[in-house]
Amino acid sequence: MLDTQLTSSLSYNLFRADQVRENEAQAAADSGCDMFTLMQRAGDVVFKQCLELMPNSDTYLVLVGQGNNAGDGYIAAINAKLAGKQVHLCAVEPQRTLEGDAGTAQQRWLDSGGSIDGFEPALLEKADVVIDALLGTGINSYIRNEFADVIDAVNASATPVVSVDVPSGLDANTGQSLGRCVQADVTVTFVGIKPGLVTGAGKQSCGKLVYADLGIGKAFQALAKASATMLNIEHFKGMGPRDINSHKGTYGRLLCIGGNRGTAGAIRLASEAALRSGAGMVRVYTHESSVVQVSAGRPELMVTDYNLEDALAWATCVVIGPGLGQDEWAETVFETTMKHCQSKNKPVVIDADALNLLCKQSTAYTLSDSILTPHSGEAARLLGVSIDDVESDRFNYARQCSQRYHAVCVLKGAGTLIDNEKKTWVCRHGNPGMATAGSGDVLSGILGALLAQGVETDIAAKYGVVLHAKAGDDIAQLYGQRGMIASDLFDAVRALINH
Binding residue per annotation — 412? Predict the structure, then answer.
């Protein structure tokens, strides 16, 4: 979940940590303030978030390191003390005198009657809330043991945590844990939202993400170019009303290919999702053993197990992969489909086992209007790297995937990424309840349906991902996350696409 305190487009843009560091002083000057004023504003916002998280809290534990992040922590501690809270402030090096603005904040804390102590794990049990100001965005190498020990103790405790700018130990650009990482309940990030906070493990570590521009947002945006953009459902106007004088052919002929022996459900989910997303006609090419299972109870689907060439010639676009398998039947079907789509310049969504077959012959095909939908395991195979590699730098590998295959890459997961070789977008919606069998098949069907209705490839990828994820959020809000199944999304997608 992302709360924003700014309604401008800046709240949807992502900026690397180095962009913030390099431009914030100039942005502050252009906005008529100095860096210490920013520090004061940051500390104020952090304290306010603590009050929102734990409104009746009396005891605060503030953990500080040695940089400007610590300075924000000192200001938050001063605010808490002035509000009558009992504040324990612990530093990794209690005797160290900080320099610059952080040093000014440290001295003000001491002047207010505060003390700086070493960390004791027992303090966690006494505290109602922890302010994590240990490590900021400047860290990009594995953290030292003295910090790791504190982070371990914080994570082992049940005390709520508010992190300053970034959870300590998290790489703000990639979302990778640098050996240890605080698991925050709330993270307040400043000036620009950092990419590592919104996808993969970084999204998990942040908890609720709160953005504060500290009054310099417009000036900063004028100086720095966004590295990626956040997407939510409000960014899309929807499909609009249909023309009165239209017919089923107006809205595309989609062919869904997959459903090998024993995996009929995958292609059934994809094809039914396509119908519910507005495709005019949907045909399914599947294994002979799957025909009855795919067509049962859904007569609107045209299902066949023979003459793939005719089915491909009929289609205006294709989805291939759900339940496809990787046996001889699958390889033959894949090769025929890819050759046809390449020669006819036909839009295609490539998912699941079709991705695994694609990585075996990546140089054989060049498709101009294709969408690849890998999870991290499939992306790892497509790029010849490990899953850990992909998860440690999702933005980088989404871009590599789109560039290698000259396709729009949808890298699925928490904070799904969409990359078209030039730009990257991040989906704000989605929840862990969607980690269920068939959810990805539904996404493929939605993407195929949008392509069938003539939506441009980039927009289809972005809108389809957001529709799918927001539908999951709507279902979770109604019934909860546990027990959500892929077909639950159909009605929610239909409602959203008509909104």
Answer: yes
